[in-house]
Amino acid sequence: MGKVTVITSGKGGTGKSTVTAGLGGALVRRGNRVLIVDCDAGMRGIDLMLGVSGELVFDISDIVSGNCPPASAIYPCRTMPELYVLPAPQNVRDEISPYIMKQLVTILKKYYDHILIDCPAGIGIGTEAAMAGADRAALVANTEPLTLRGCDKTRQMLSDSGIPEIRLIINRFNERSFKRLNVFPDLDAVIDKAGARLLGIVPEDPSCAARAQRGEPMEGRYHAVAAFDRIAARLDGSHVPLEL
Under 8 Å CB-to-CB from 162, ≥6 apart: which residues? Predict the structure, then answer.
């Protein structure tokens, strides 16, 4: 039975989907079979990042409505075997309910080592659905005050959803910019503000992010890739020291 992790954030623009795609690839490199579920109805993007957008015919709403069996709406990532994508609906009106999502995830996790759920921004029904059925959560934040402001409400939603393990990923970290901003004295203060234990830090890495935007796998000698590999090892239960 696979572990289900919802990847969420206090607000949009933190790079949450990039983190989801990066962690998916990192977990596959560790020998796992991984499914990424895109819950951002109307704004889906994981299919573009993983290079499967040209193949899409069905999405998660087609499974729910009975238009296709689940296997027909799950697409393999051609550049990375054992990584699969279940895309979100193109229209917001087709987003699925938390109750249905929980039932679907319960079925799907029998066939994968890890399921990563890419949560939409905000606190609407799509966010509630993404959280339904998750075993744990990764809260993605940057070090700017505006991206940390929404962490409290999102963390409360995760707790209300019955998710016992909530961890923090600091994404797009740039030490020079962090010091120049001069809002927090150190990263410990950022972690305290977010209110969740640190899972890992992903450095700002434009070259790696550009690969994702082109639909190319995030792999190779990139600082962000190394960070994703460390976080994936922790998600797999390995003890890897945190790097602050």
Answer: none
| pTM of the predicted structure, to 2 decimals | 0.94
Across the beta sheet with 136-141, what order do the strands follow?
Answer: 75-76, 83-86, 34-38, 114-118, 3-9, 136-141, 165-173, 197-203
d(CA 194, CA 213): 28
Q: How far is CA 20 from CA 70, 113, 228, in A?
A: 21, 15, 10
pLDDT at 235: 94
Kindly tell me the number of DSSP H helices and DSSP E strands found in the chain: 11, 8
**The residue to which tokens 């560790």 are assigned:** 30
* Non-local CB neighbours of 195 within 8 Å, separated by 6+ positions: 151, 152, 155
Amino acid symbol at 223: H
Helical spans, DSSP H, in 66-196: 98-108, 125-131, 145-149, 151-160, 175-181, 187-194
Residues of the chain scoring pLDDT < 50: none
Provide the token pair at 236. Answer: 């797999």
Q: Residue 41: its pLDDT value, please? A: 76
The pLDDT value recorded for residue 2 is: 87
Which residues have C-beta within 8 Å of that of residue 160, sequence separation ≥ 6?
Answer: none
Residue from 227, 239, 111 nearest 170 by CA: 227
CB-based burial, 22-47: b 16+ in 10 Å, e otherwise: bbbbbbbbeebbbbbbbbbbeebbbb
Query: Residue for token digits 């890739």?
Result: 225
In this structure, the dihedral spanned by the alpha carbons of residues 150, 151, 152 and 154, taken in order and rounded to 10 degrees, is 90
pLDDT score of 115: 98
C-beta atoms surrounding 125 within 10 Å: 15
